[in-house]
Amino acid sequence: MAVQLDDIDRGIIDALRRDGRLSVRALAEEVRISRANAYTRLERLTSSGAITGFTATVDPAAIGLGTSAYVMLTVRQNSWRELRTRLQAIPEVRHMALLGGEFDVILLVRAADNTALREVVLNELQAIPEVIATRTSLVFEDVENGVAAAPPGR
């Protein structure tokens, strides 16, 4: 069930998306509420599952992952649970989603270079018995929350 959010809750979520390290004091100032109210709302948003955690945003290229691709999979019917477990064991798979449409699964794969990407697709993904076919699309530029990531080499 969806959590009922008001404008202040949405402001808290937006502020934390921009900077998950905001102190409660800074968060309260940004959304113009008291610190006590910010604590209460933050606790409610986390305990209800609206906020599921806090994380660092990382530039993949800066940590040696210079190649990214979306890999679409066609898989055997009723194999999602087994497949999901296998995909979670591949470190280069950074995100996965079960789809309705032309493809069954989409993966965001980040690798050191094209050779490493090729290894993941041809030797790991295509070796999974549940995977019938793959289609790979290279990512030339990432855009997160409406802001383009710095172009490679900048």
Walk me through the structure.
The protein is α+β, with helices and mostly antiparallel strands. The chain folds into two domains: 41 residues, Arc Repressor Mutant, subunit A; 80 residues, 2-Layer Sandwich (Alpha-Beta Plaits), CATH 3.30.70. 35% of the residues lie in helices and 22% in strands. It is built from five helices and six strands; from the N terminus they run αααβαββαβββ. The protein has a four-stranded antiparallel beta sheet with strand order 2-3-1-4. A two-stranded antiparallel sheet has the order 5-6. The protein is elongated and about 55 Å long. The protein starts with 6 loop residues before the first helix and ends in a 6-residue tail after the last strand. The C terminus is likely disordered.
Can you lay out the helices and strands and say which pair or pack?
Layout: H1 7-18, H2 24-31, H3 35-47, E1 67-75, H4 80-88, E2 93-98, E3 105-111, H5 114-125, E4 131-138, E5 143-144, E6 147-148
Antiparallel strand pairs: 1-3, 1-4, 2-3, 5-6
Which terms would index this structure?
alpha+beta, four-stranded antiparallel beta sheet, two-stranded antiparallel sheet, 154 residues, Alpha-Beta Plaits, disordered C terminus, Arc Repressor Mutant, subunit A, 2 domains
Q: What is the CATH class of the largest domain? A: Alpha Beta
**CATH H level, superfamily name of the largest domain:** Lrp/AsnC effector binding domain/regulation of amino acid metabolism (RAM) domain
Overall tally of structural domains:
2
Give the helices and strands as they follow along the chain: HHHEHEEHEEE
- Backbone shape: elongated
Main sheet attributes: strand count, strand direction, barrel closure: 4 strands, antiparallel
> How many helices?
5
From the alpha carbons, calculate the radius of gyration and give it in angstroms: 19 Å
- Strand line-up across the major sheet: 2-3-1-4
Q: Oligomeric form of this entry? A: single chain
Would you report the number of β strands? 6
